[in-house]
Write a structure and sequence with these properties.
This is Bacterial Ig domain-containing protein. The chain has one helix and eleven strands, in the order ββββββββββαβ. The mean pLDDT is about 90.
């Protein structure tokens, strides 16, 4: 209610509706990390992901607004067993719990793997005529975990 200098009064009302977002996004997913490839993952579409490296440096990246995919450069110097951490912050400012991924620099262990090569020709010997043509070599790899 308000009253003017002449004593006239009136009441004015207005209604506003607000949506308050206090829901944190899910933790970002971080794809497997090696020593050289970019660090990639997914988070809530349109959120900002803060990636923290083992040395404490951080990189912020905005996710794709449709897929939620994100990519940051690999800083190099990562050591096997290091942990990469990512936190997504949605447009309302709500941070997620951290997502983590352990750096894996260990190559696959070929122990126990067996490569069996199929016969190259009917007699498994290339003669002069066969050696001038295209030879296809096939085989089977087994024992890979």
């Amino acid at each position: 209610t308000f009253t003017d200098a002449a004593g006239n009064s009136s009441t004015v009302t207005d209604t506003q509706t607000y949506n308050v977002d206090v829901t944190a996004p899910a933790a970002p997913e971080i794809d497997p990390v090696n020593g050289t490839d970019p660090i990639t993952g997914t988070a809530e579409p349109g959120s900002t992901v803060t990636v923290t490296f083992p040395d404490g440096t951080t990189v912020d990246v905005v996710t794709d607004p449709t897929t939620g995919e994100w990519t940051v450069p690999n800083p190099g110097g990562l050591v096997d067993g290091d942990t990469i951490t990512a936190i997504a912050t949605d447009p309302a400012g709500n941070p997620s719990v951290p997502g983590t991924e352990t750096v894996d620099l260990t190559p696959p262990n070929p122990a126990g793997a067996t490569l069996t090569i199929d016969d190259v020709t009917a007699d498994n010997v290339l003669n002069a005529a066969e050696s001038t043509g295209t030879v296809t070599v096939t085989g089977t790899l087994t024992g890979i975990p």
